[in-house]
Amino acid sequence: MKNKLLISVCMILIILIVSLVSGTFPTVNDALTQTFTSTSNTHNVNMPSTVNSGDLLIIYFGSDNTIVTTPSGWTLEFSGTPDSFAELNVYSKVADGTEGGTSVNVQTSGSVRASSNVYRITDYFGNASGIEVSGTTGDSINPNSPSLSPSWGSEDTLWISGFGAGPGADNIATYPSSYTNGIFIRSGSSGVNEHYSAGSARRELATATENPGQFGLSASDHWGAATIAIRPGEGAAGYANKVINITGGKVNGVDSANIAKVNGV
User: What is the DSSP letter of 179?
Assistant: First the structure.
């Protein structure tokens, strides 16, 4: 009788855990593009109209090679300059709830054009430890953000691959395989000098290591590219790693008969 009872309790717990873990990838609520077609030292990057306290904000900022000042309250996750022609900077911030409908000035030492992609993400780990970034630079027709193995291993991770390119402002031709919801913008027509683009796409995948693959441009250009891993919320990560310990008629220290009565077994 006791063994049947324990089996019933285990089945209930397994069903509960599966229901808690399923559908737990971080959620992209907003993915915005913006371009700065005139040369300037000031680049007021627009935030989503709604931003709640605890939301994760990410900026991909592609520009000419210049000194770029990290906005106050933001974290520089990656800065890459392939040569003297282009630069990519990636920033993140755990929102305090005042950002909605405002703008963030990404100040540059030189007067340059630029483009940006902005993401607002919810249902993630909830603090800065839930984001990790790997970046690289190159000169080719294929911006290629690098492989990334986040410290939390295989969980329901949201992956974002993005790039900034210039000065040719070449158009986007293809996004990495299996990546969806691509966004792209450029500050001028393809082939026009001193214009800059930013593009990105995303993927939901439970894996310990992800290598997004290549973007395709309409022509060769100078670029920086970065892969971002965003960890799922504590509920998913926590319950997925819980250990059920059955000892002496108890489940994780709780009398199995009491658990069974609560669940109607």
Answer: -
